[in-house]
Amino acid sequence: MGTKRTKIYEGKAKILYEGPTSDTVVHYFKDDATAFNAEKKATIAGKGVLNNRISSHIMTKLEGIGIPTHFLRSMNMREQLTRKVEIIPVEVVVRNIAAGSLCKRLGVKEGTYLAKPLVEFYYKDDALGDPLISEDHIITFGWADPYEMEEIVAMAWRINDYLNGMFMGLGLKLVDFKVEFGRLWGEYGELYILLADEISPDTCRLWDTETGEKLDKDRFRFDLGDLVEGYQEIAKRLGLIPEGGLMKEGEINEDVASQLEEIENELAKERKFKAVKTTKKPQKN
Ligand code: ADP
Ligand code: AIR
Ligand code: ASP
Fold first, then answer.
1. Is 126 exposed, middle or buried (0-12, 13-18, 19+ CB in 10 A)?
2. 51 vs 196: CA distance, rounded Å
C-alpha cells in the first residue's frame, strides 16, 4: 500500500480514510476532544491512542459473544481497519444510572439507578444538536425500518448486559453509553446490521464503584480532572496498558504504545467472523 490515502471524512474525534479494499475503511483516532456539540474544544495528547485501543478491545470482546461489529484489526497506535458500512443516522443510548442529558431534561437526580435499562434514540445531525427522537420518528422518516430496529434494540440490550458485567468485574459502573449501527450487504444481497463507530470513554460514562470518581469524557465536559488519567485508568483495568501507564511527561511512551497493538492483533487472530459473510474478502495489497 502506498503512503497516499484518500480521506473520506473528518469528524470531531476521528478521520476516515479509504481502506486497502473498497469494502474497508481506516479509522484514525485524533487527540481532539469536543463537547456540547463542539462548543468546547481541546487537543489532549494520548486520547486518540487510548480510545483506539479501548474500542478495538471492546469490539473484539463483543464479536466474541456474537455481536457482529465493523472491527477488523488494529493497524497502529492510532488506526484501525473496519468494514465500511452505511451508517444508520441514529445514536442509540443505553442508560443504567441517571446522568447527563437525562437529568437535565427530566430533573432526575444524577446517580439514580433506573428500574430497567433505558434505551433512547437521538437523530444524528450536528446542525440540529442530535435531538432526542422516538422509534416512530425513525420509522416515519425511513432512517431504519421496524425489522432493523428490532435487531438494533436487541443488540443494544446484549451489549449493555455484557459491558455491565465486564466493567463491574473491574470495579467500574457503566452508567450509560452511546452506540451506532451500520448496514452491510452480503453475498446474496442479504442485509447485516453491524455495530460500528467506537465504544470508548468518549462514548461511555464510567464511574469507579468504590469512590464514584468519573473516569470518562465528563472529566473534559465539566473540568473534573485530567482526561487522559481517567482513560488510562480504564485501559489499565482492562489489562491494555502496564501499571506505569502510557504517558511519560505528558507525551506518549512510544515503546509501550507499539506493544499494545501487537497484543490486540494477537487477540483479533483468535476471532472467527461467524456473523458476516461479505462478497469480497479484505485482500492484502
Ligand atoms: P462525528 O462525525 O460525530 O464528528 P467522528 O469524528 O467519530 O464523529 O467520526 C466518525 C464518523 O464515521 C461518524 O460519523 C460515524 O458515524 C462514521 N462511521 C463509524 N464507523 C463507520 C464505518 N464502519 N463505516 C463508515 N462510517 C463509519
Ligand atoms: N454520547 C452521546 N452522544 C455522544 C456521546 N459520546 C454518549 C455520552 C454518554 C451517553 O452517550 O458520552 O455516555 C449519554 O449522553 P447524554 O449527553 O445524552 O447524557
Ligand atoms: N462529542 C459530542 C460533541 O462534540 C457530544 C459530547 O460528547 O458531548 O458535542
1. exposed
2. 14
Q: Which fold has domain 87-209?
A: D-amino Acid Aminotransferase; Chain A, domain 1 (3.30.470)
Distance 22 CA to ligand 2 centre (A): 31
Task: List the domain boundaries for the chain.
Answer: 87-209
Cβ 33 vs Cβ 17: under 8 Å: no
Q: How far apart are the first and last CA of the chain?
A: 6
Looking at residue 285, its pLDDT comes to 47
Nine-digit cell string for 132: 432526542
Question: What are the pocket residues of ligand 2 if the criterion is a CB atom closer than 6 Å to any ligand atom?
Answer: 91, 93, 99-102, 176-178, 202-205, 217
Nearest CA to ligand 1 atom 11: 11
> Is this model's pTM higher than 0.85 or not?
yes
Contact 171, 210 (CB under 8 A): yes
In tens, the pLDDT along 253-267 reads 887 777 777 766 666
Per-residue burial over 152-181, b = 16 or more CB atoms within 10 Å of its CB, e = otherwise? beebbeebbebbbeebeeeebbbbbbbbbb
Nearest residue (CA) to ligand 2, atom 18: 101
Beta carbons within 8 Å of 118's beta carbon, 6+ residues apart: 94, 95, 102
